[in-house]
Amino acid sequence: MIHEVDEGLRRLLGESGLEASGVDVVFDAPTRDWAARRSAPTVCVFLYDIREDAVRRGSGAGEVYDADGHLVARRTPPRWFDLTYLVTAWASRPQDEHRLLSQVLATLVAGDTLPARLLTGTLAGLGLAVGLDAGGTRLDAPAAADVWSALGGELKASLQIRVSAPLAGVTTETAPPVTEGLVVRSATLSEDGEATPGRRLRYREATDPGPAGGLAGPRERGPAPARRRRRGDRQP
User: Fold this and answer.
1) What is the Cα–Cα distance from 106 to 197, expressed in whole angstroms?
2) Among 45, 56, 180, 195, which one is most buried in terms of CB atoms within 10 A?
3) Residue ranges of the alpha helices (H) in 20-89?
4) How many percent of the chain have pLDDT more than 70?
């Protein structure tokens, strides 16, 4: 799911014209060593915090049906996670960095969800909205200053964005639907202990496996056996 969110953000920023203008969009950690190796204008989208939204955790299981309406699987509810990114712009001049950051901000605040057309994999398959919050505050996420301190770099103008995305639940396949009727065989034992054929109880159109396991065509139900005469019954 995380890599699918990355791809959605990359596609969204790509639509803003960054890639067409020669600006790289990367998801690397903006450390000192990384900054020293950078040579082209770059927008860095660094994921630094992942937390589950326990309030949205569901229970039970949903049912999955095929095109014919048959139940084929059961799936536990998705679990929602908040992914927090630190977005920075890197160029040779601060003015160019601010221009890139402004372009990114305008793109991210245009909507409160990632467009469905940009979603891939399980995010597209679930059909659920993926929330997008740009520039908002999040008290339980590390502050930008703490992130820069952990990276060993100097504080830089940055934009925090939070994506609320579902992680697909566990899918368990069910048994295939019953397509054949029930066949019940009965047999009697002769005096020498050998089995002799008895009556068959069956549904119409059922497939009879036959005595040797081979398939035979459907047969009509046989005649009912004669009722055993009990003591005291009158003769006709």
Assistant:
1) 83
2) 45
3) 32-37
4) 69
Compute, in degrees rounded to 10, the torsion defined by CA atoms 10, 13, 18, 23: -40
Maximum C-alpha span of the chain? 117
Could you write out the DSSP letters of every residue in 179-211? Answer: -S--EEEEEEE-TTS-EEEEEEEE-TTPPB--T
pTM over cut 0.85:
no
CA 70 vs. chain centroid, Å, equals: 20
CA distances from 73 to 7, 58, 173 (A): 28, 18, 4
pLDDT tens profile 53-73: 988 887 766 666 777 777 777
- Tokens for 146, please give them: 């703490």
Residues 6+ apart with CB under 8 A from 82: 49, 50, 51, 52, 53, 138, 141, 162, 163, 164
For the stretch 193-236, pLDDT in tens is: 676 665 555 555 545 555 554 444 444 444 555 555 555 555 55
Nearest to 9 by CA among 104, 125, 121, 151: 104
* Contacts of 100-106 spanning 24+ positions with Cβ under 8 A: 100/18, 100/23, 100/41, 100/43, 101/157, 101/159, 103/16, 103/17, 103/18, 104/13, 104/16, 104/18, 104/43, 104/159, 105/134, 105/135, 105/159, 106/16
Residue 33 DSSP one-character state: H
Beta-sheet pairing, 79-90 with 42-52: antiparallel
Helix residue spans in 16-93 (DSSP H): 32-37
